[in-house]
Amino acid sequence: MPHLDQDYVAVHGSLEQDIAGMEPTVLASPVDTEHGTAVTSNLNPPESEKTWDMEYCMESAVFEVQDSLFKVPRFYFSSNTDFFESSFAALDAKDDTGGSSPKNANVKLEGVSKAEFRALLQFMYPKWVPYLPWSAEPTTNFSHRRSLVRTLSDDDWVSVLELSTKWMMLDIRAMAVTYLTSSRMVSSDRVLLGRKYSVLQWLRSGYIAMAGSARLLAANAEKIGKESTVRLYRAREKAWKSQSQALPPPGLKFIANEVSEVFKGELQLGQQLSSIERVLLAQKLGVVEWLRAAYLELVEATDPFSVQQAAAVGYSSAIKLSGVRERYLLQHIAALERRHSKTRSGLARAPPSDQTTVRTLVEEEMKAELDACMSHTVANRLVFARKCGVQEWVLAALVELVEKGDIELKDAAEIGLDTVIAVYKDRETVTQTPRTIVIDYGDVINDEFKEEFDSMRVAGAIYHRPEISGSQAKSVEV
Question: Can you tell me the mean pLDDT for 206-211?
Answer without folding.
Answer: 90
